[in-house]
Write a structure and sequence with these properties.
Blueprint: H1 2-19, H2 21-40, H3 47-53, H4 57-71, H5 73-82, H6 87-91, H7 95-117, H8 121-124, H9 129-149, H10 151-158, H11 166-173, H12 177-201, H13 207-227, H14 230-242, H15 249-252
Transmembrane segments: 57-78, 98-117, 143-164, 176-198, 210-234
Keywords: Membrane, Transmembrane, Transmembrane helix
Length: 259
Amino acid sequence: MMWTDIKSIYRSAWTFMIACPLLFLIPVFVEMAQHVAEIHIGMYHSLASARAVADSPLRMTFAVAKIIALMLPGYWFVRYLAAGNDPHAARRIEPVGLALWSILFTLNLTLSLYSLFGPPLGEALGLTGSVGTYFGTAVSGGWSILSVYLSAWIIAWTLGNATIGPLRSVAIMNGYFWRTVVYMVTGVLPLMVVHYALGYGAMGCPNWLIWPMLIVDAFLVGILALTMTAPIWLGARRAAEARGVELAPHIDSLSMQRV
């Protein structure tokens, strides 16, 4: 079943791209806009140039837009998957689900912006030297682990089910941590490798080659936004099934055979 699930991560991303092209293209357009800005500031002239302009205000503005664009499929793609790859469910605005997801979105965006612009956590707490570094690393690692256990909460709220909170999510996901991690690694790592290869490979290339490489990369990021989301859904769904828990009764009643 695990191999079938892994294949479904990429298959469902492909079917979503065909069924909901406008939703799929939102992260693609944002990524391409960032690439245009990067070309404008000379980021692809060389590795040294990239380092010099990596934190430029223009690029960081698009970095924030990209973070938001990558989070958006957390609403529409989860609903698409939960409804058996139904594009109408992806496009439908459900007030309760959207409100609950908006809370998760705000929390996630706040953490992402702090990570991008805020001081190191150890420094913010007055810890200096190696102690501050180790503390920040430990907190980051702990949060990464906890976030896997919160998968059921994330999915349930996105589907409009407020009965599953963080504590219940941890209980549901207990025993499914590593399975969910495997889904995440197989769904993200292969595309991330290609994403970075295209980015670094474009440096120093002539414009006639840079543009096609970055266009391909933008579409790759659009797919990556989906393959980052599907593992969370799969992990939560398999854990919930094992415990007889319905993540969202009004959606789980639909056929799941295509997921």
